[in-house]
Amino acid sequence: MILIILLSCIFDHIETATLSNAFPKCYQNDPKLNECFVKAANSLNDFVKNGVPEIGMRTLNPYVSSGFNITLETPITDFAAYTTNFTLFKMYDYQFEEVDIRPKEGKISGKVVLPKWGLWTNYEILGQMISVEVKGSGTVTCECDRTVCEFSLSNWFDTSNCKDINVDIVCKLDDMSINFTGMANEEVVNTLLNLSSRLFASEVSPAFSSIFQGFMKQFTTRICRKFKFSELIPPSP
C-alpha cells in the first residue's frame, strides 16, 4: 500500500501544487532511478501521514480497516480469528532500504522497514498461540518493534490486467508486546506470550505478511485502473 502511494507521488501524478518545489522527481531512464526512488520515498513520511485525497488514500494516522478473518497454522501456533475496526498506527513512519524498479518488465521489488508500529482491534478467536490456549472475544493491542518487509509487484503493464498483478510481501517482526482483554485466562495468556515475545513475533509474522499483502493488492488494483505502469514511471520530459 505504502509503495503504490509513493509511486503516485514520486512520479508526478498528484497535483504539483501539493508537493514542495524541492521535491525530487524520478524518471524511468534515469540511470539512478532506484536511488532516486529511495531518497524521494523516504522524504514523504509527513506528506502521506494524514492521507492523500488526490489518489483516494485515507489517513495513515491511524489507518483503519473494517476488519477481516485471520488464520494461522504452525506446529505451536494454530488459531482462527475474526477482527473488526482493525486499526494500524505509525504506518507512515517507514524507511525504504532498497528498491529495484524495472519499467520494461512491469516489476518493482525491494525492502521497507517499519521501526515501530502498533495495532488495535476487536477480535473473536479460537485456538492456540505458542501452545497457549486462546479463546474468547474482546480487544487486543499490539506494540511492534522493527519489522522488515520484502515486497514484489509484477505483471503490471496496462489497465486491462489489473486483477492479474502479482503482489507478494514477506514481513519479519523482530519483537512485540501484546495485551488481550476479554478472555477468561487473559492474564495467563498475556504473561506467557510476552515472556516469549520474540518467538511469538516470529510465529505471527506470516499472518501480518498476509494482512499487508491484502491491503497492497487492493490499493494496487485501484491505482492500476487509473494509470498504466509506463504512466506511473514516465521517461524523462
- How many domains? The number is 1
Shape: elongated
Mean pLDDT: 85
Percent helix = 25-40%
C-alpha Rg (nearest Å): 19 Å
CATH C-level category: Alpha Beta
Q: Segments where pLDDT lies below 50 for 5+ residues?
A: 11-23
Q: Give the biggest beta sheet.
A: 6 strands, antiparallel
By CATH, the topology is: Bactericidal permeability-increasing protein, domain 1
Task: Please name the CATH architecture.
Answer: Super Roll
Strand elements, count: 10
Cα distance, first to last residue?
27 Å
**Which structural category do the helix and sheet elements fall into?**
alpha+beta
CATH superfamily: TULIP domain
- By DSSP (H or I, 4+ residues per run), the number of helices equals 6
H/E element order: HHHEEEEEEEEEEHHH
Bin the strand percentage: 35-45%
Keywords: Signal
Pfam family, one: JHBP
Signal peptide: 1-16
InterPro entries: Haemolymph_juvenile_hormone-bd, To_sf
